[in-house]
Amino acid sequence: MTIVAPVPTDDSVEPLTEDEVARIRADFPILQQAVNGQPLAYLDSGATAERPVQVLDAERRFLEHDNAAVHRGAHTLAALSTDAYEDARATVARFIGATTPSEVVWTANATDALNTVAYGLRNASAGRGGPEADRFRLGVGDEVLVTEAEHHANLVPWQELAAATGATLRWVPVDDAGCWTAADALAHITDRTRVVAISHVSNVTGMVAPVAEVVSAAHAVGALVVLDACQSAPHRPLDVRALDVDFAAFSGHKMLGPNGIGVLWGRQDLLDALPPFRTGGSMITTVTMEHTDFMPAPERFEAGTQPVSQAVALAEAVRYLERIGMRRVQAHEEHLAQRMLTGLATVPGITVVGPPTGVARSGLAAFVVDGVHAHDVSQYLDAQGIAVRSGHHCAQPLHRRLGLTATSRASTYVYTTEQDVDRFVTAVAEIRGYFGAEDAS
């Protein structure tokens, strides 16, 4: 894949051209196949992205030539694998604007990363971590704030933290479109707030959170801000320092990388003070039968055998995205989102949740087809070779607030074409007639 168009230096970033997307698609073997006799239109990248040959080859090359345990051996392969592992950390650190690679912790996935923070705070609240961890203590009277739109991965760990410490879990309510505003959040941030955990981009509505306003208000009362960046890191520029958050989490498989690896970013001083919750080998300095001393970050959070080949592959995914340019990735997906919304708006009996047409959103749309269950919608589209998601998307409270049990969700990425979107809209327009739902209405 070679992107030849220059990346504009001003604010008017052009979406990818059809030729550029075609060259990108050629890097993805899985997209070259037919599904149910139709060319594959993969519109489920919000759940998991496909992988280009560059990423597949990078992991394969590592496993064929350099694979060994990192940080443990003095032989040549151990040195090569350690260098590759730490070079990958540095690559990801640069990609997200970290101050130093040691602010990047490898985790099993984003859920694991968020649990690392939540259970670290829980351990600190139980007296673990010594005096430097006192800043993390929570108890009765303290509050943890989330939103009603959170993915379960950024809700359930905080429920558990509140239950274990006696703190109160509060949430910012959403409106009838599933969205919330900065004013809504600020109304719930008080001098009792100790943690604010929000998604940068909603995996259901595509709404982009007002992070700057939330961070400013949270820090004004001394609260930590934890950012779920699963739907932003793959799709738009992510600068954790510019955002001024305290922790951020995202996963590899949503950004052209492998399963089995996620990223926790945290401010160095916070990571070095946060007690670990997963313990064992690789994260210690001294162990006696009575006591253990832990290494500083990032190693203190990387107990056990590390995801070495996965880190190598994720770094290659990052370099792939950097060659395209994240501003152009964002422009491409926002263009496709508006094309999708405009098309769906012409189809009777379709309700799209989230920001209306014309308002910037990530490249996804969750929708309801009147009279047809979301799973039937997905199966009909699959018969046309179009892959979408159906269900509650690990966001049951949001769906419950909207009076829905499930939605269908189409999500785009760098390899999605305008033709994919148009095929999708055309197929959606056929669904109610196919299931006889037009007569029912």
Describe this structure in words.
This is Cysteine desulfurase. It catalyses: (sulfur carrier)-H + L-cysteine = (sulfur carrier)-SH + L-alanine. Keywords: Lyase, Pyridoxal phosphate, Transferase. It holds the Pfam family Aminotran_5. One of its GO terms (molecular function) is cysteine desulfurase activity. The strands form 5 sheets. This protein has a 7-stranded mixed β-sheet, sandwiched between helices. A 4-stranded antiparallel β-sheet has the order 13-14-17-16, with helices on one face. It has a two-stranded antiparallel sheet with strand order 1-2. 38% of the residues lie in helices and 15% in strands. The chain is globular, with a radius of gyration of 22 Å. Strand 11 and strand 12 form a beta hairpin. The chain is of the alpha/beta class. The N terminus is likely disordered. It has 2 domains: 148 residues, Aspartate Aminotransferase, domain 1 (Alpha-Beta Complex); 265 residues, Aspartate Aminotransferase, domain 2 (3-Layer(aba) Sandwich). It is built from 15 helices and 17 strands.
Short description:
The protein is an alpha/beta fold and 441 residues long.
List keywords for this structure.
441 residues; alpha/beta; Aspartate Aminotransferase, domain 1; Aspartate Aminotransferase, domain 2; 2 domains; four-stranded antiparallel beta sheet; 15 helices; 17 strands; disordered N terminus; cysteine desulfurase activity; transferase; selenocysteine lyase activity; PyrdxlP-dep_Trfase_small
